[in-house]
Design brief:
272 residues, alpha/beta, Rossmann fold, eight-stranded mixed sheet, 40% helix, globular
Length: 272
């Protein structure tokens, strides 16, 4: 099944690329830092058997506008709502990975009538100072002209388990795919997304949310450790958590079947 790719022109001049897959109840998938619609490749077709899956490239990534774009969690949430408007969709469940979880939370807080449920993967209400320092170091290295292959080799152990990366040729193939990707994120856009992450913290507002929420976390997540993230997100009324073994930060890549199964089980809790 080939995706339907489209471009949406936003009021501030940003072009937002997105794809749609399947049919049925809408499910908006929001990618994390430096990722775009293609990052959902391991799960999108399976999810499209049950949902109309909508996968945008966040502003600052992929085929969406990168240069000159205002990038914040707020603007990315507004982009999601503009996309729903363009598709004639009143409300949707939102799956957000990492930074995408920040965007999903912002949508639920600012547009509560339009969000029927949340799936928060490897995410939290905000970032620890340690994580912000790490992300800013990655951004500084990129802006300074770091060699791409070496930069990705240093990044991937923070996203995946050592067992996953130690499988034959996995690291080499992952690095080659990242370096050769035809829609790379610019260093400046990466830096702006990092600053958007650093400036977001909604922990004090979570108690105002009461909607079906599934927290999916890899047991070996180093960027957003599972115990602390789940405890913080459990302030959402209606939240429950699923821990996935043999997975780190990118559960949908390392354990795609478990990821999809968790969302299918969660579907019965959503008000369609």
């Amino acid at each position: 099944m080939m995706p339907e790719g489209h471009m949406l022109q936003l009021p501030d001049g940003v072009s937002l690329y997105f794809e749609t897959h399947g049919a049925g109840a809408p499910l908006l998938l929001v990618a994390g830092l430096a990722s775009d619609s293609q990052s959902w490749g391991p799960v999108v077709q399976n999810l499209a058997e049950d949902f109309l899956v909508i996968t945008p490239d966040n502003r600052g990534a992929g085929r969406s506008t990168q240069s000159g774009a205002d990038i914040s969690i707020r603007t990315m949430a507004d982009d999601c709502m503009a996309l729903l408007d363009a598709l004639g969709i009143d409300s949707t469940a939102i799956v957000g990975h990492s930074m995408g979880g920040f965007v999903a939370l912002e949508c639920a807080l600012r547009y509560p009538g339009r969000v029927t449920g949340l799936v928060l993967e490897g995410s939290a209400p905000g970032s620890s100072p340690e994580t912000v320092r790490l992300l800013r170091r990655w951004a500084a290295d990129l802006v300074a002209g770091a060699e791409p292959a070496g930069w990705f080799r240093a990044l991937f152990p923070w996203l995946f388990t050592s067992a996953f990366l130690e499988a034959p040729q996995v690291m080499d193939e992952a690095v080659r795919g990242a370096v050769e990707y035809p829609y790379p994120q610019s260093p400046e856009a990466f830096r702006k997304q990092v600053e958007a992450i650093a400036g977001f913290d909604c922990s004090g507002q979570l108690g105002t949310l009461g909607l079906p929420t599934l927290i999916i976390h890899g047991c070996e997540d180093r960027l957003f450790p599972a115990a602390a993230s789940i405890e913080a997100l459990s302030a959402i009324r209606g939240a429950r958590a699923t821990l996935i073994d043999r997975a780190a930060h990118a559960v949908h890549v390392e354990q795609p079947e478990a990821f999809v199964s968790a969302i299918r089980a969660f579907r019965s809790e959503l008000p369609f």
